[in-house]
Amino acid sequence: MEADTKQILEEALSRRTIAVISHPDAGKSTLSEALLLHSDAITEAGAVHGKAGRRGTVSDWMDMEKARGISVSSAVLQFKVGEAVVNLVDTPGHADFSEDTFRVLAAVDAVIMLIDAAKGMEAQTMKLFEVCRARSLPVITVINKWDRPGQTALELVDEILTRTGMRSMPRNWPVGDSGHMLGLLHPDAMSMNRYVRAPGGAKKVLAEPLSAEIAETEYPVEWQTAVEESSLLEVDGSFYDRDAFLSQEATPLFFASAVQNIGVEELLRFLMEEGPHPQDRPDEEGSPHPITSDFSGYVFKVQTGMDKAHRDRIAFMRICSGVFERGMVATHAQSEKPFPTKYSQQVFGRDRTTVDTAWPGDVVGLVNASSLRPGDTLYAGQRVMFPPFKPFAPEHFRVGKTGDASKHKQFRKGIEQLDREGVIQVFFSERRGQQRPVLGAVGPMQFEVVSARMESDFGASVSFEPLEYSVARDIDEQAAEILRERQDCEVLYRSDGTPVALFRDPWRLRTVQRDHPHLLPDPPGSRTSGSATARM
Ligand code: G4P
């Protein structure tokens, strides 16, 4: 099939590729289900996502995930809303996997940020806002759980402003306090929706539109309060400015109760009408690579163990330009080797379907793509390479080793593989030897994943020896030579050959910096200690 420029543009314009992100327990899975429910992709909430007890817990690919009730892996769900196609990319909820989240967010054009009405901005919420800023991603904010007592609407708006610098543009506003929700006011129309719960709770709630006059008559105090409060957020006679949303100066704000499906329909409508569509993506040199050029795609996630029976490994790729057609021979930009695309799939819950054609914004799973790693580019025709991921600075270090001498080969192979997938960072030094690599993680739970994967996929158990380092810095060879002589840091090599200096704490780093300021300049925008965006 020869896709012309017009068709590629039309398909791209109809795509919305997004992620729902939040601090754990704010309602990410519940909202994802609710979005699907409203799109009619599923007919009963709980069929796709969900935790233990709910049907079809597809996010729980690994036993560890099941045990902890967290989602380590990322799934991609595609569904249609009218003529539009939504690609909903799932992200790991736990802070220990924030590097993974950062990579996944390279695949989306906007995010829905959920905030629990009672808890406000939590630790992971702040980290995620930072990641979105670093990625220049427009953020739609949803205050969830409005059916339960929580903070006031204005307190939450104020908190968002003071902690992120973003003002809120209300797309709806609660009538009634949290825990006493009567309905939602729509600032543009100055009308209200009252909700009637359907029996059983799992079906869509029914919205009953009320004019301002009726709302005022029925709820004189609450309606007046909602009108007054929301109008405090009016700027130049308007509640909404699309440019401010796209440039992240402001965030469209929704109040919702995901569990009751309240506020979800308007959120979906906003996404369709105002959500950004896929655009030209900057290449390695920073020049925009036109969306209408030949096929190109960006690998953002490699996932193993999604299907225990097959022990397969799927590389998830976002289409950046052109049209992807199954069977086409693409080129892997990093190796310049041909890459066959015969086994391309879409993963929807437990179901997998073969993908024959995909357009910019879509996500395709490439099965058994063992040569691909997160950050890689595939292209056909005109050569392009997108910038690779810069690794996060790990903050936890352990020596990994296997107790069973007969398993050294499996151990080496396994560690190499997990490094390639981005599960863990691997460092070596002559002093420590190849059998005792140093493993670096952003969050300690990554070590549990390593342990589980080494055992189940490679048959090699691994034990860890903690190291008391918490700060890592990329250095050059000249610095490596000098720092190797010091007692207060250790020089290792990352698996890609980059020398890295490890320090026990930020104070040690500062001491060494004072002695050798030219060897260890602070990287722009980084902090010495942990931060979601601290890169090496
Ligand atoms: P997560 O993916 O962000 O971790 O959160 P998840 O959707 O699993 O929701 C966490 C808990 O919050 C769940 O309760 C869920 O039912 C509840 N929840 C989500 N949205 C709302 C809401 O709008 N209002 C209220 N009141 N609760 C909400 P749980 O007890 O942990 O699980 P479950 O047994 O209810 O599934």
Automatic annotation (TrEMBL):
Protein origin, superkingdom: Bacteria
Domain Tr-type G residues, every copy: 13-283
TM segment ranges: none
Compositionally biased spans, kind Polar residues: 526-536
Keyword Nucleotide-binding: yes
Family: Belongs to the TRAFAC class translation factor GTPase superfamily. Classic translation factor GTPase family. PrfC subfamily.
Protein name as catalogued: Peptide chain release factor 3
Main location: cytoplasm
Assigned keywords, A-Z: Cytoplasm, GTP-binding, Nucleotide-binding, Protein biosynthesis
InterPro entries for this protein: EF-G-like_DII, EFG_III/V, G_TR_CS, P-loop_NTPase, PrfC, RF3_C, RF3_dom_3_sf, Small_GTP-bd
Compartment annotation: Cytoplasm
Region (Disordered), start-end ranges: 514-536
Keyword Lipid biosynthesis belongs to the record: no
Species whose genome carries this gene: Nesterenkonia lutea
Pfam families: EF-G_D2, GTP_EFTU, RF3_C
